[in-house]
Amino acid sequence: MPGTAPSDSSSDRLALLLRLSQTFNSSLDLDEVLNRVMDEVIGVTGAERGFLMLHEDDGRRVFSAARGIARETIDDPEFLISRSVVERVAHDGEPIMTSDAQVDDRFSMRQSVKFLGLRSILCVPLEVKGRLLGVVYVDNRLQTGLFTQDDLDLLVAVASSAATAIENARLYQVAVEKGRMERELQVARELQASLLPSETPQLDGWDFAAYWRPAREVAGDYYDFIPLGDRRQGLVIADVSDKGMPAALFMALTRSMVRASVGRAASPARAIADANQMIAADATRGMFVTLFYGELDPTAGQLTYVNAGHNPPLLCRAGEDRLDTLSRTGMALGAIPDTAFDQGTVCFSAGDFLVLYTDGVTDATDAREESFGLERLHRVVAHNRRETAADVVAGITGAVGEYVGSTTPFDDVAIVVAKCLN
C-alpha cells in the first residue's frame, strides 16, 4: 500500500494534513523541520527515498534534506536523483508524477534516469504565497506504478503545509542570526571605541577636542593622541579606503603600526615610512589609509607633520581672515611598501588653531545629494575662530547635521581640533 492514508474520505485526509501540519510546525529549528518533512512525506507516499531542495538567494538549488525509508540521512544526494524532473518542476511550478521513468517519453532518454534505474517518481514545488521556496522529490527504484494521482494530490497538499513551516523556520533562523550579528557588531563597536583616546591631552597653554562618528556600526576613520615624552604630543587622524568591518580591522592595524613606529623613530617622516612598510605588508584587497600625523612641541608652539595623502588640515590664524592648509607630503599608507615621506613644520601663536578632519565632513550630502563641501567647512571654521576647541568641533558637526537633515550618513567622520591659548 503506497501511503498511510487508509481511507479516501475527506475527513481522514483532513485529519492527516492537520497532524502533519502540527508535526511540521512543532519546531523552529530549520534542520529538524526539514528532516521531519521528508520523513513524513516518505511515510505518506510509501516512497523509498526523499529529497528536499531549497532555493538560495543566488538562484541555486541546494539539497537541504535527503532521507531514506528507514529515516536515515542519505549522503551525496546530488548524484542520486533525476535532475531533469527537478528542473522542470522548479521552472514550471507544476507537480510531476511518473509511474516508470524508464519508459516515460519525458525522461527515459535522460542519462541519470537510466543510470540510476529510477522508476516511480513524484516531485512537487514548495510554495509560499506564490513564491517558490524549492521542491520535494520522492522516488522508488524498484517498483513501477507505485504512485497514483491521489498520492500526487496528497503530496501537493502536504508540500503546502510543509512550505509554511519551512519558511517560518527560515525566518526564525534569519532573525536569530541577525540578532547574533547585531550583538557582535555592537561588541565590535565598543571595542573599536575603546581604541580611541578616552580623554584629550591636558597640556598647559593648549586646548584639544575630538569627535568620532561611524556611518555604520564600526568605522574606518579614527583619531589618536600619542604622548611622546618631553611633553611632546602626537596627533593622528586617518581614513581607511573601505567601510564597515574590513575598514575597522584595517583601522586597528594602522593604529597599532603607527603607535609602534612613532615611539622609536628619529623623525615623523621616518616614523610614517616605517609604519607604511608594516601596513603595506599586511594590506589586502587593495586597501589603503590616508593619514595625517603631527608631533606637537607645546612649549615651542611648533608642529612637525607628515600628511600621507589625507585631507589637508585647516590652520586658522588669529586675526587673519584666510585659512592655511597643511598640504600632502606623501602618498597614502599601504599602497607601496618602499615610500619616502617629506615632513613640514608650522608654528603657532596665541589664538591659532588646527582642524584635522576626514572626508566624511566635506562629502556629507543632503537630500539633493549635494555635498557639504570645503567652502562651507571654511566658513564654519572661520566663524568659530574665537571659540574653544570643543565649540569649534560642535560648530562643524552642528553645521553638517543641519545641512544633511534626515539623510542617512554615507561616510564615517572624525575631527580633531588643537588650539594654542598663549
List keywords for this structure.
alpha+beta, five-stranded antiparallel sheet, Phosphatase 2c, domain 1, single chain, 10 helices, 422 residues, Beta-Lactamase, disordered N terminus, elongated
Q: What is the spatial order of strands in the main beta sheet?
A: 2-1-5-4-3
In CATH's first tier, which class of the largest domain applies?
Alpha Beta
Q: Structural class of the secondary structure composition?
A: alpha+beta
Proportion of strand residues: 15-25%
Radius of gyration: 33 Å
> What's the β-strand tally?
15
Biggest sheet record: 5 strands, antiparallel
Provide the domain count.
2
Helix % is 25-40%
Query: CATH superfamily of the largest domain, called what?
Result: PPM-type phosphatase domain
Under CATH, the topology of the largest domain is which? Answer: Phosphatase 2c, domain 1
Shape: elongated
- CATH architecture descriptor of the largest domain: 4-Layer Sandwich
User: How far is the first residue's CA from the last residue's CA?
Assistant: 98 Å
